[in-house]
Design brief:
The structure is a homodimer. Chain A has a two-stranded antiparallel ribbon. In chain A, helix 6 runs antiparallel to helix 8. Chain A has eight helices and two strands; from the N terminus they run αααββααααα. By secondary structure, the first copy, chain A, is mainly alpha-helical. The longest helix of chain A is centred in the last third of the chain and has 30 residues. Chains A and B meet through helix 1, helix 4, helix 5, helix 6 and helix 8 of A and helix 1, helix 4, helix 5, helix 6 and helix 8 of B. The structure holds a DNA duplex.
Chain lengths: ~180, ~180
DNA sequence: ATTAGCATGTAAACAGTTACATGATTGA
DNA sequence: TCAATCATGTAACTGTTTACATGCTAAT
């Protein structure tokens, strides 16, 4: 149920096509949501059928037409109603931690390599969130003011990745000592 | 695909029934995996059909029979093979952060209440993980030694919840200043 | 020539949630 | 008597991933 509101939220900030949306998910909300382009298109069709989105086709030279979606009155009302509802914290599902939990099947060398891989992935995420943060801090102060709560989500993403990185580094040092 | 290996991992440590398993998920791996009892039973049937699990029925007085599952040779081999494979980091999906991202639809008072609710949930999680940790630290040192990597996952859970709590508290102070 | 990016979609498989169903025991 | 715990299951639905499909442009 949350994907639809993630879609409505981004289109509320700025209208766009399914393709646009996919990229904006990757660039601006990947620290708390992700979705494939198939999910986008399906959700956009559904929301359009339900009258929460308007759609205007925009012809382009040498490229397929773009279908630009934007919120209708009802769409904005639906988003506003949902935003005010309590939401339970998401359950975590982290396959890598299952592997560590079954870690007595690993040699120290294998464990080291696995942790090292995760460390690199999380360092890369941290790096990209920090870059995003720099971009936000250099943007129009009036926009920053308007979306300051949205910005807090990025700060949480940064803190979460720092936590992962620190944990993985500590674990690697331990594995090295053995 | 990961649920099956989570199930195999727990049954590898100690055989048990679907019901047992459900409780053990809640008590010992809830910081990185969760599943409903329906998922357990379905997965157990599948794994049994595929020959990765043995099943022996254990009659009980005044209670329904228990079906005790344990790993077969092939089950152990399948787990060991999977544990050694690289796994990509899980994508995050946190509905509450969508709500904050659309936070310009909230009054300060509504935002405060929402953050407060999350803070309480994460404090409760932190508390329960710390309790789990105490139990681990008071258990048999030989067992602690054997499962020290598994224990690392709990330490990450604790750090992650501390990060959430600290973030939410900072955000609340900010909202109060407004 | 090949790869990457733009742009949209269908179909099938897999995973997860919610609701319903049964039936016994134990404790408040 | 009512709720909780033990113990297992079916059915329907919703959500997510993976594979396949088309076709154009721009850069290497």
């Amino acid at each position: 149920m949350s994907l639809r509101y993630a879609v409505l939220t981004l289109l509320d900030i700025e209208p766009g096509s399914g393709y646009d949306l996919k990229r904006r998910f990757e660039r601006s909300v990947s620290h708390f949501w992700s979705a494939s382009h198939q999910q986008m298109y399906r959700e956009l069709h559904k929301l359009h059928d339900e009258g929460l989105l308007d759609c205007t086709e925009q012809p382009q030279e040498g490229k397929p037409d773009k279908k630009i979606y934007s919120l209708t009155e009802r769409g904005r009302a639906a988003l506003q109603a949902w935003v005010q509802q309590p939401t339970p914290a998401q359950k975590i599902r982290e396959p890598f931690l299952i592997q560590l939990f079954a870690g007595h099947h690993l040699t120290d060398e294998q464990a080291r390599a696995a942790v090292q891989r995760q460390l690199e992935e999380h360092r890369a995420l941290l790096h990209s969130y920090l870059e995003q943060n720099e971009r936000v801090l250099q943007s129009d102060p009036a926009v920053q003011e308007r979306y300051w709560l949205a910005h807090q989500t990025l700060l949480l993403g940064i803190e979460a990745e720092k936590t992962w990185v620190a944990w993985a580094e500590r674990l690697l040092r331990r594995l090295d000592q053995q």
